[in-house]
Every structure is written in C-alpha cells, then in structure tokens.
Structure prediction request, 276 residues.
Amino acid sequence: MQNQNSPLILTFGTADPTGSIGIQADLASFAAMGCHGLSVITSILIADTARIEDVQVIDADWVADQARVLLEDMPVAAFKVGAVGSLESVTAIAEIVSDYPDMPLILDPFLSAMPDQGQDSEDMLVAIRELLIPQTTLLLASAVELSRLAETWREPTAEDALPMDAMRVIDLGCEYLFVTGTPGDMHDVTNALFDESGMLRKDSWPRLPGSFAGAGSTISATIAALLANGMEVPEAVFEAQEFTHAALANAHRLGMGKLTPDRYFWARDPDPASDQ
Prediction:
C-alpha cells in the first residue's frame, strides 16, 4: 500500500452547491496547492451564482462528530475554519482545535452573502472573538468585516480605526491578521498583514472588472495549504494573493450571477491550437 504524501487539511465550513465558496472552494484550492482536503460541513446552502436563498445549519454534535472521526483516523497538517453555522458549532470547533495547539489554524468566518441571523449573528461574533481568535494562526477579514467584529468591543466610529482594531485582534491572541480591501488607490485592491509588531506588509493588486464570489475563500484556503506545505506566514500570504489574483483573472461565468475563480487556471492549455 502506498503511503500518503500530500498534506491533509481539515476545513470546517458551509456546503455551496455552486462550488464558488465554502467547502467546495476550499477543496479546489487545497488540491491546486498539492494538498488533500478533509471536510466538516457546518451548514448547507440553497444558492446559485447570484445569491444565497437559504441555509440549513447542521447540528453542532454532528459537526463535532464529523471532525473527531476524521482526526482519530488521519494526521492533519492544518485547520481552516470558515462559516461556522451556529453559536453551538463555534464552541464545538473551539474545543476540537484546542486539542491541537501546535496546528496552524486559518480562520475566515465571515461570509457577507449569508442571510443575517440577527442577534444570533452578534452572539456568534462574540464567541468567535472569545473562543477561536485566541487560537488562530491567521485571521482573514475584509476591512468592513474587521470593523463589524470591532463593534463587539467598541462603539461604531466614522474615524479610521483599522490600525487600532487590528492590534486589538492581535492582543486577543491571534498571531497574524490579514485584512483585505484596506484604503488605497481606487484602481487597486490593497491588503495588509499585521502581527504583534504592527503592519508587516501591504500589497496592492490591479482591480479586476466584474463581480466575484469566492475570492476570500480562495485566499484563506490557499494560505492554509501553503502553511501545510511548510511555508512561513508572510510568504504564504503573498503567494496566496498572487494565486487568487490569477484565479480571478481567469474566472468562469458559470451562471447569470457572479464570476467564480478558476483555481485550476494553471492546468489549462492557454492555446490548444498550438498543439496541432
């Protein structure tokens, strides 16, 4: 029997029938980086490329059981946590990952297209802040999502609070914070990486035309895969951005809604006629 050589990554997240976001997107990004993905479903979407119509949350006991069975059977090189589904699942996931303190944990819990759950959404944010962020190697959030998270510890403000909010996240115990969509040239997308020393790097990429679903999922899953392959966080963040920009530049129009990143752009012959 042949030994398993590809790093294994366990991802927690939602099942998206279009493959644009969530578990399906993670598995594609892992495979593109030479990793094998293991998945724990936290919710199931009814969705097309235009919108998410409804979500069915999976019972937290089922979430925990999915993960425990896998972890008892296979050696995992990294965790990725996406949309958590429910407050109870936050608690279950936090308990599971706490048993593996040396394992890289990439946390990307924000999915703006998900239906708002009112007070439950606020309670989940607080639970994520208290239970998952202190265990996190890298948290990915857009500037808007970071501001929303920050409102669990401060009042809303019109001032630029991003640097202060970023350092508060680091103070919570998160090793790195990667913020997308930070202020910059309107023709570019600018992202920033923070650690305990402050801002480590800022990268800008040409803004591509079109509306996309899955850019954030692609970045966070690719970072997880690169860490599983032994890369250091700052380098992994840059490489993941480069990969994601290329995946978006080659995006598919699968339906009538948003474009879906092509995570296998590198495997396609750019000019089939050249082989003839």
About this structure: The chain has one domain: 8-266. The beta strands are 8-15, 36-47, 52-57, 78-81, 105-107, 138-142, 176-182, 188-195, 198-206. The domain at 8-266 is CATH 3.40.1190.20 (UDP-N-acetylmuramoyl-L-alanine:D-glutamate ligase).
